[in-house]
Amino acid sequence: MFPHSIPTGERSMKLLIDHEGVNGQDFSQFLAALTSDVKRAADDLKRSDDQFHRRSYIRSVFSAIEGIIFLFKQLCLEGAARATYVEFTSGEIALLKEEIYSLQKNGTLSKQPRYMPIAENFRFSLAMYVRHFEDGIRRYKIPLDYSLTDGGWDALNQAVTIRNRITHPKRTKDLVVSQSEVSAVRKSFEWVYRSTMLHMCAGAELAIYLERETNELKKTLDHLRKTP
């Protein structure tokens, strides 16, 4: 079924983003807008299944996926700037910023945007996001497991190939999208969406545990201070 809304996921995401001190309202609205565009494109395709609407649907899906990748990476960079316990290597920081550096002949540094393959970039952004709370996930035994064997990962890689073909066509038939290709793109987005919500909810659940533990600790300290 197409994931057209963010029921518990949006609330969980707000909890986690607020916990990390990031502008949760902007990020949650951003994610909702991305998924809303995909839903509208899917509805348009259902009403009028032609090549134009198939290509439009695919483009909206990848716009959403790239937006989700950006969201995770921004959360990582915001978290690293605020929390000393989150450590990224210089190489990871460069990949999170999607930047590449080189030295010019005059001895000055040159910075260029770095192209990263979409599928690998999505998995990388998830892995870096989990870096924030992997110790807490193990401590509180919060389930966080997204399968690469359910066909979603393969569908994403297939969808990337389809998207690249229609984005950079070399001949007329490159623009023709089959029904099976639409199905592969739909499956890939459902997997990306589930993975996104799974990670957001796991982080939010940990935030709730930590808030509860912090409140208990405060109560204990207050009690000790009052004890003669």
Structure summarized in a few sentences:
This protein has 228 residues and is mainly alpha-helical. It is built from 8 helices and 2 strands; from the N terminus they run ααααββαααα. It is globular, with a radius of gyration of 21 Å.
Description:
With 228 residues, the chain is mainly alpha-helical. It has one domain: Four Helix Bundle (Hemerythrin (Met), subunit A). It has a two-stranded antiparallel sheet with strand order 1-2. Helix 1 crosses helix 8 and helix 2 packs antiparallel against helix 3. It is globular, with a radius of gyration of 21 Å.
Return the average pLDDT rounded to an integer: 79
Quaternary status: single chain
**Total domain units:** 1
Give me the secondary-structure category.
mainly alpha
Which spans have pLDDT < 50 for at least 5 consecutive residues?
Answer: 1-25
CATH class: Mainly Alpha
H/E element sequence: HHHHEEHHHH
Helix content: over 70%
Largest sheet: 2 strands, antiparallel
What is the approximate shape? globular
Count of DSSP strands: 2
- The CATH topology name reads Four Helix Bundle (Hemerythrin (Met), subunit A)
- Give me the number of helical elements: 8
For the record, give the distance between the C-alpha atoms at the N and C termini, rounded to a whole number. Answer: 61 Å
Question: In what order do the strands lie side by side in the largest sheet?
Answer: 1-2
CATH architecture level-2 label? Up-down Bundle
